Amino acid sequence: MCGIAGFVDFNGHSREAALSRARAMTDAIPHRGPDADGFFADSKVALGHRRLSIIDLSGGHQPMAAAEGQLQIAFNGEIYNFQALRRELEAMGHGFATRSDTEVILQAYLAWGEACLARLNGMFAFAIWDTRGTSPTLMLARDRVGEKPLYWMRQGNRVAFASELKALRAGGGCPNEIDPEALDSYFSLGYIPSPKTIYRGVNKLRAAHALVLTADNAQQGGRELRYWQISFAEPRSISLDEATDELASLLDEAVKCRMVSEVPLGAFLSGGLDSSLVVEAMSRLSDRPVITNSIGFDEREFNELDVARVTAGRLATDHHEWVVRPQAADILPKIAWHFDEPLADSSAVPTWYVCEMARKQVTVALSGDGGDEAFAGYTFRYLPHAHESNLRARIPA
């Protein structure tokens, strides 16, 4: 992962002071990008970036410019269809100086403006500063399901943003007042849904949304636009066999595009269906054994190492195991520091350990996260909603 931070002040500011503030913000999140940092500032905006290098290791440094410096971007994430988009843009006459997906976003923005967001297949949070017209514009954008975080807050005519709340706090002016509505959401849901955060006056950018800021609208919080929404409006007539084949094809495509990397890549293997399917696809699509990482526990009812070991053996992976004897009291403060706000996720402890283990072998790891949410895998959480939808479809309005 990478990290971004910055702010825009349409009243103007000192470039030197702005760079110092942006550096303080990125200094708060070095764990997001240990490989490099970079900064841009002019009389109105400052952008900061922490980089974890995955694609185009020698190039792709950020913030990145285009249109003779009139566009600047700070980007966190990966665009999985960047190669296809690059070919399309090259056919339109756009030139490229790097192999990075970052530059593809810039050229896509040049070609299609805000409409480029609907063309991006990936996980991302980015800021684009556009000074081409008479009204300079800062656009903040977040991916379709909100995989990459992006927080923002308004202070008069100035708007600050960052990948983590702690970076906003490091930049100064971040409210320290707990939002009681956000706290109520946490106790009800176990997390704080967008657009709220634990702090009053600080927002999460919603998934599949962009925030467009100009001198005319910054004091009102900018213009928010939604560029994508899942739709079930057009039911399809498809057999179970056809649906199965299409799902298998989509899974292979999703795994393949996520394996584009110039650094060591592996996977988390829990022994469950989701991660096992991902590793199976990786094994077929790779010309070398997949590096898999599994953790287990002394308590038999929570230990999946036996199943993961069988899966790893059948797929001939380069398998690594670690039996965790967690000292939760020791790591909970670290986890809370990274989360920045309350989150009731008991899997955070084992996730911490498997990430710590995997980092010894790989820089990037695929996992099965999201499978339960997409396929109603939690019986008591999602299955009742499926039954309710079926009943609603059968009951006359």
Structural write-up:
There is one protein chain. β13, α7 (273-285) and β14 form a beta-alpha-beta unit. The protein contains twelve helices and 16 strands. The strands form three sheets. A six-stranded antiparallel β-sheet has the order 2-3-1-9-8-10. The protein is of the alpha+beta class and 397 residues long. α2 (82-91) crosses α3 and α6 crosses α7 (273-285).
Proportion of residues in β-strands:
15-25%
Query: How many distinct helices?
Result: 12
In whole angstroms, how far apart are the ends? 47 Å
Shape: globular
Sheet having the most strands: 6 strands, antiparallel
Based on DSSP secondary structure assignment, what is the total number of beta strands? Answer: 16
Cross-sheet strand order for the largest sheet: 2-3-1-9-8-10
Structural class: alpha+beta
Helix coverage percent: 25-40%
Low-confidence residue ranges: none
Q: SSE order, as H and E? A: EHEEEEHHEEEEHHEEEHEHEHEHHEHH
Q: From the alpha carbons, calculate the radius of gyration and give it in angstroms.
A: 22 Å
Average pLDDT confidence is 92
